[in-house]
Amino acid sequence: MPDSFFTFAILALLLTPGPTNTLLTVAAATRGLRASTPLLAGELLGYLAVIVPLATIAAPLLDGRPALAAGLRIAAACWVLFLAVRLWRVSSEQKAERQAAPITIGQVFLTTMLNPKAPIIGLVIMPHGTLAEITPALGLFSLLVLTAGTSFLTLGHVVGKAPVLSPRLVYRIAAVFLLLFSAGLVGSASNLI
Question: pLDDT digits over 105-126, tens only?
Answer without folding.
Answer: 999 999 999 887 898 888 778 8
